[in-house]
Amino acid sequence: MNNCISCGSHELNMQTETLSMRYKKAHLDVVSEFSVCKVCNEEFESPVQANANDISMREAKKEHDGLLGKDSLKRLRVQHKWTQQEAAIIFGGGINSFSKYERGEVSQSDSLDKLIRLCTSDTLILKKHLKLIDREDLFKLSAPKCKVVDFISDKSNTQRYSKKITSNNSVHRVIEPIEWQYGT
Fold first, then answer.
1. How far apart are CA 173 and CA 109, in angstroms?
2. How would residue 78 be classed by pLDDT, with cut points 50, 70 and 90?
């Protein structure tokens, strides 16, 4: 809306103010945007501003609840090379759910947030989850070639170790991904 809702003037000032919102016995500060008509001084919220203000409130609530914000959700999805539709298949919620999460239109549940955090922080958990939902084809991360597991100060008896020489000529024991075990 580019005109005043009272007098129809196109001469508007966009303004912001910080509002204190009570949520779960806490006070959250949320930035709200609105318009002021230069002709009649009417203050109003355009539909675009109302939508942006709703998103700001939702994001403040998610932050208070310890949930991932819309930008974090997008960053994790892109980092794992999933489309929004693939992320929706992996985590559930409907084909358009991730699109809505990333735009801030809806908030993910606490349990969904935890599942996303687990699957995006641990490739073994992600692989197990994808196997459970019969969608192993959606695993797109390239596995590392090797993993440094400890430091060897004595260079003798390193035949079965990869010689990963550092700047101070020390050798590290390196194992292949097939040898990795969760929790080691």
1. 42
2. very high
Range of the domain at 60: 12-65
Domain for residue 2, yes or no? no
Q: What is the mean pLDDT of residues 46-72?
A: 93
Give CA–CA dist 147/180, Å, rounded. Answer: 8
* Residue 39 identity (one-letter amino acid): V
Structural domains counted in the chain: 3
Here the tokens at position 85 are 């539709």
Phi then psi dihedrals of residue 102, to 5 deg: -75, -25
Question: What's the token pair of residue 119?
Answer: 């699957």
Do 60 and 30 contact (CB within 8 A), yes or no? yes
- For the entire predicted model, the pTM comes to 0.66
The predicted-structure confidence for 6-57, as pLDDT tens digits, reads as follows 888 889 999 999 999 999 999 999 999 999 999 999 899 989 999 999 999 9
DSSP bridge partners of 175: 147
Note whether 171 and 157 are same-domain residues.
Answer: yes
- Four-point Cα dihedral 42, 48, 53, 55, nearest 10: 170
Residue 1 pLDDT level (bands cut at 50, 70, 90)? low
